[in-house]
Amino acid sequence: MQQTKRKFKFGMILTLVFSISLILSASGFAAVNSGVTVTGSNLSGGTITFGNYSAITLNGTEQTTTTTWPIGNIVDARGNGSGWNLSLTLSQLSEYDTSTSTYVSSGKTLDLGSIKVSTIPVVSMVDSTSSASSTITTVALNTSLDTGSPVKLIIAPALKGMGSYSMTALGTTLTVPASAYAATYKTNATVALSTGP
């Protein structure tokens, strides 16, 4: 009987020593550090596809014509939270010779501010882990676009706009006064996606 009890006690001691060595080994693994390097890349996108307005036949009254300009997705993968803005610069609508594809020297013009925003773009997240799209602001309705100066269409403030976004088209309305000269008019457009709100 006594011999059996001794064997049992010896077995308990071995189990205890084995358990302690496992705990020490596990704590040694916990001390190992783990990490990752995240590298930023580029701010890209925001191209605008321009289309012509429908032709107008003068009738002695002010008339309007509308069109929409699709906006390409914007991706901010820089990872620096500096914000961004998409701006559009339109020159004054000026008489254009379609046969020579040049502007007419001293030709007719339409008033500055003839093109206005009629539908604002709606911004949505392409990837659900992007910064909230609700923090991104857009141009106001009835903003004049053909002023010769940049107009910010979409603005992501600092620490926001990180990720990828889609935009609905920008709707615009062109107003032609009753006193307009009959001609073809064109504008030069410059689109810029820039750092900072």
Structure overview:
This protein has 197 residues and is of the alpha+beta class. The chain has one domain (43-195). Helices cover 15% and strands 32% of the residues. It contains one helix and 14 strands; from the N terminus they run αββββββββββββββ. The protein has a four-stranded antiparallel sheet, with no helix packed on it. The chain is elongated, with a radius of gyration of 33 Å. The protein starts with a helix and ends with a strand. The model is unreliable at 8-26 (pLDDT under 50).
Question: Radius of gyration over alpha carbons?
Answer: 33 Å
- Based on Cα principal axes, name the global outline: elongated
- Taken in chain order, the helices and strands follow as HEEEEEEEEEEEEEE
Strand-residue fraction? 25-35%
Oligomeric state of the chains in view: single chain
What's the story with the biggest beta sheet?
A: 4 strands, antiparallel
Helices and strands: which structural class? Answer: alpha+beta
